[in-house]
Queue: 2 jobs
Job 1
Amino acid sequence: MAAAGIRYFDRFGVTEELIARTIAEALSRGGDFADVFFQHAVTNDLALEDGSVNRAFTTVQLGVGVRVVKGDQTGYGYSEDLSLPALLSCARTAATIADGPSREAPSRYHVQSGLPQRYPVRLRWEEIGAERKLPLLGGLNERLLSADRRMRKVSVHFRDEAGAVLIADSQGRIVEDEQPMTLLYVSCLAEDGSRRESGGYNVAGRAGFEFYTPDRLDRVVREAVKRTAILFEAVPAPAGEMPVVLAAGSSGILLHEAIGHGMEADFNRKGVSIYADKIGKPIAAPFVNIVDDGTNEGARGAINVDDEGNAAGCTRLVEGGVLATYMHDAISAKHYGVAPTGNGRRESYQHAPLPRMRATYMLPGPHKKDEIIASVKRGIYCENFTNGQVNIGAGDFTFYVKNGWLIEDGKLSRPVKDVNIIGNGPRALEKVDMVSDDLAIDEGGWTCGKDGQSVPVSQGLPTVRVSSMTVGGRGQP
Amino acid sequence: MSDPMDQGELAAAARAAVELARKKGAQEVAAGAYRARHVEVSWRDGQLEKVSEATSRGLGFELYVDGRYSAVGTSDLRPEALDRFLGDAVALTRKLEPDPFRTLPDEKLYHPRAQVDLELEDPSHEALTPARRREIVAEVEAAARAVKGAGAILSVTTSFSDSHSTGFRVHSNGFEGSSRGTDFWIAAEVSAKDPDGRRPEDWSAVGSRFYAALPDAAGVGRTAAERALSRLGSRKGESAVLPMLVENRCAARLVSFLFGALSGGSLQQRRSFLEGKLGEEIGSPALDIRDEPHVKRGFGSRLYDREGLASKPFRVFEQGRLASYYIDTYYGKKLRMAPTTRGPSNLAWGPGVGDQAELVRAVGEGILVTGFLGGNSNGTTGDFSLGAQGFRIRGGQLAEPVGEMNVSGNHLELWHRLAAVGSDPYPYSAMRTPSLLFEGVQFAGL
């Protein structure tokens, strides 16, 4: 049978007939819904250390996962072998979640066309050889080493990913999406007398080689040097409760942890999120608007379609300070009787999808950055972050500040570094009392972990003031 | 393949992979073939939540081509695809810069391999039935819901998972090794409703290499429920410098930062706060840790490490003194140091002074940390700052639950303040951390 309509996965022998027989087997015990997820991903890593690009890492992932859903229940099987017997075996495994008479599978499948193009690639990774990438790494090394006399070691890590997913389901839909990705991490180690500090910068996006414009590479060098050098001037951060001002950009980590995870619908359908039962209720000042958006062109968190084949749009989580909607996958959307929001994502064919964030950010507000900083007598200004975490039910969340400043008498006074900040989600949102007009979406390589699955995300924020949070430093309060 | 775990077929696949890579132009090769079967059943509030079952497989290579190096892996094992994959990988490696430090390990270090049965594979694994797995997850929930105060429980999720993995590794300079193992885990997560609207959660999990050696399933449910309920009414405490008792279960987080600074890579890249400190006192005499690769049924047990080096026990910290780094072949050559092993196997701590209750009594006033939340540690400087929750200790007894707090310090100071370790190594992790008691730790809160 001809694979009419299947483009990318045709090369692996994936046909509509193969899909039809797999879905029929998956529904053989009466599941409500079934889908098949094919994935091919080629990841290439190049790394520079001690001045030379002398190591490469390549990984090829090819596999398929079959899922059967019955109510809120999930059966799942996966395989690296795409043959019919292997697929039928996965389908039989997944089918065991149900235990009834078989459900009829569709007789026809329709390959969807006309997906949005949120990551148009000009220079495809399949066509960019190592000889194009190597000078980029070497050039960054030279520029970084010569930028500051204290610079001792530079490492550069470059990654590109090419590949595609195909999702077919028991509604007869087939969707294919090619999903490129690239990341560049630079880290610097500097010495000044007996003191040593390490810092760096990273950029990421769904794009091809054209992502690395001269402007972007200049910024990588400038930011990596600046973020390392400033550490030598840093004083210990204070300990205790105080106002916290978040710089525009990667401070969106606040939203990711304080509200993002808690708004993923699986935690709410299970009743375990601190935001369960809060839809329609005010949770923040009226000028607070928060979205989770799959549509930002080229962003690391952008998707044309989610991993369940649903359109990914812009989901308004908080509108005018009121909790508007959760982020849904197919299971939670059915549970709540709403349309899926395109948040069903998975790390790979080895995992069933879950409601996950894409690019989470706050829309601009009525204040000005200078006005916000000037309003703080004593507090912390947070610029750069490494990681964060949240307890979904208790609501306690953290984010780790790599670089920041003390604010004294309305001015950025001295740099601080390496301090964790902890708060409670709903209480921190209530305390967001100033929001600036300078929204920036960070270009960094953020990855979100949940239930052992990692997915790429983006985040952003305008300059924001939180009137009080606990700063985990060691200096005087 | 008839038996997906058949070692003979894996060995043949790994040997053929080495030959293919050489034919494609690699002078030296390390190749590994693996298969893993993983089954997981989860259960929530009276019904099955998810069943997942799969056998997965792949091949990995380290290629040494004309003085250059790459490491590649694939799950696409169709012969023509593998042939093309290796051809491309060798061509890519040739484009890199040469690296004189990159070689296969010295073959003398592959020997002597200990002649012991580590007991890592449960032969009765295949006898475990889907029905039994489902009975266990239901039993764990029932136990969670039977504890005192269970009326405040919002949701109980339990799971049973087991895996069976097998691998075979071949190096072109004479190494061959096969590894097989099983593990079984029972876990529970419980959420409770606090009158103030918060929904604190906690978990419990037990695991074993052998199914029959798993502790009582009901205990997992009870522990998770009691822990979640004990979080009700938690408050932020005041900022203060206090003794910190770290529960054995979460102490691995602190210890892993210390061990990260011992790796050859971080030393050579000068990103280690322990660089140049071999033989020096890093902590109090209570910091006493051995690396023990040959523990029977251990989660980190091995006869050879990821490079094929024969594993042997050694001291990492001896009464506070740093006795050894973790040095692999590559960074050993760059540092002109003899390789030890790339990373920890099982850790064994020196004798402790009692269980958690005894340490609580001994400390009198302080905070018991039962969970870290987020935070990080700067490997270059040793500065750390971590979110924490737990219980206030007053008058030698556990008092009110505290949360939304932070602890911070520097590892080069912290480990000197290690006043005591417990005699209660956490059995469900290769790090086997005991309770750790530190004096004078900065807590941030109100």
Job 2
Amino acid sequence: MVNLYAKRYYFFILSAIIILSGVVMYLVEGFNLDIEFEGGTIIEMRANDKMFTEANTQELQTKIEDFVEKTINKPAKVQKSTSYDVSGTNTKGFDIITISIGSENTLSNDELTKVEEAVVKEFKLTAKDPVVSEESVEPFIGKEIMNNGLKAVAIAFVLIVLYVWYRFKAMSGLSAGVFAIVGVLHDLLIMLSVYVIFQIPLNESFIAAILTVVGYSMNDTVIIYDRIRENNRLLRKVPLPELVNDSIIQTLNRSINTVVTSLIAITTVYVFAKINGINSMEQFSFPLIVGIAAGCYSSIFIASPLYVMWKESQKKKKVSGKPAKA
Amino acid sequence: MRGSNAVKFFSILLIIGILTWIAAYGSILGFEIPGVKNIRTGIDIQGGVDARLYAVTKDNSKAKAEDLDAARIIIGKRLDSKNIFDRVITVDKEKGYILVQIPHKKGEAFDPQKSIEEIGKTALLTFQEVDESKKDTNGNYLPTDKIILEGSDVKDASAEIDAENGGYCVALTLTSEGGKKFSEATGRLIGKPIAIFMDNELISAPNVQTQITGTSARITLGGTAGDEQRDEAKNLAGLIKSGSLPFKLEARQVNNISPTLGSNALNVSINAFIVALILICLFMIFYYRLPGLIASIALVLHTVLELLALSWTHIIVTLPGIAGLILTVGMAVDANVIIFERIKDEIKNGKTLHAAIDVGFKRAFSAVLDSNITTLISAVVLWKFGTGPIQSFAYTLGIGVVLSFITAVTASRIMLKSIQDIEVAKHHWLYGVSMRGGKANG
């Protein structure tokens, strides 16, 4: 039988490398805060067909930027992107002009209307509803969402530790719960690294993704714990590292298959969103893929081995304590 | 298959069939039962505008809960007058804002910016002297601009039980300035009506019975006493109060999405949903064979139940909500995976098929329960702390976990147990156990 426990440091190092590269990226680039967190205004308008060409894109973007700036006296950034209309029989791409204005200059309702009307007129946008979407958020609201999100994660942690503590008393529940949470923290760090490395904007969906992974990652750990709990009853004499290793191997199929089905589901969402250019779903599903995979990885290679290391170190303390007393 | 087992197995298939029919067509045997078509979709799918109107008080103090409620009533009134009925208006009392969501309608020329601006304006409340001979086509008095009181003259308005006449009345508290003006007017207009207008729309026209001095007045309502009168009094009090709101409403978060963008997203996610469902069924059948097939049937049941749960509860489904739905399809088979692996273990350990299935379900139960509850905890926390789209995600995830627990533990079990006696169903190969292998560790 493979001894995963003996190889634990390899897995620790692999995780550390990913998390460290996340930290490095954070120091270089920082988080990409979405409008919901940072505040600001984003207007998306449908461009005319063939309005943008390979050659004029850069120039046209700058031109719109200058025009917006002149209209409302606030600096703006303009980007062209492509979206798809899949409602009909033939999928057709069309260009979108995205105008973003920073949080310190969030537009009022009047300014929003003014910009839209002016751009439509100046650049002769012909679409029936030229404004595809607009979003304006004042910065303080983002703080609220962020605080609420952090509160939610903290509360979920506490509740889950309490539950695991109660259910796994047989394997000293509190430390089992704590190491399960260490595993979850590991997954969250991996996820955060992915957000930073790929510069995926943090928004409300980010909180949902985080909490889903918290719940999911615990799932996998609990499956293994459940087997440890059972083997604990059956095989009293087997030393703990061996017992845990056996439990992990015995449940390996289950752990992998439950993750595989979830990955099939969420990866399908990602692929469909990516192909059809639906950004919000793409940005939501990608981190979930990483988080779910990391959740499985950490249950097998991080949380359980750490739990064993902790129990072993406690035992050693007891043993080494004894002669001193005698 | 013995008779009773066959009945059980086919009953489940029949139930799934009926539920699928209901979900797809929204009716059965002439009874209307909400189905997939009745699922309410959010602004991000349907397109529309979503704005948070914050109450901004003069001294930056927190807006009072009842004032926010009054503002909600007036916003509703204004949307009514624009024939926008399919909207959601919710008040967040803690944070002092009113969330207004108006979906796009097909073929509707609708300027969200302007609408939000209009509905956010504080209503203009006036008490006016009217010319009794001049009425509009509905028999309502017309505004005359002979203004007696304005919104700022009214300090408070509330619905109260009318101690003298029985029924309900609206009690007004005026400012001292307002009291003086009202005393003068009521002295002059005994027996005549004083009309109350909101943005030039008549909301009530009580007759003056006696001169009212001081700062409190009451409006008695005609008609029969009862719940209807109480609601009317509450509504009128709310309207009058909203005219004297101590704050203005400012749209600080506006989100407007065109219907094309949203419907694209919906089409894409429905396709993703179907593909994910098929892929997972294929995986389960390929890997677990006969139990896998049963898990796939249970998964269809799970999916249909979840869709029905969404259409019956009028929860608004957003894009993250659909993502949650698809994700739960993946997670719904978790319980079955745990159980089937256990059954495989037991078969490999030499148990008979019967015993293996029994023990498999029994021993896997604790793992299934524990793993589902941890996910459920996350879903509940998300539901409690999330807003809009996130709550939708939490809801689909939470319902999905509960349903998956029920379908995996009960439906799969009944189906699997009812076919275990068929001769062809006894081959271990059908349970994903290779016959060559001895004791394995899977």
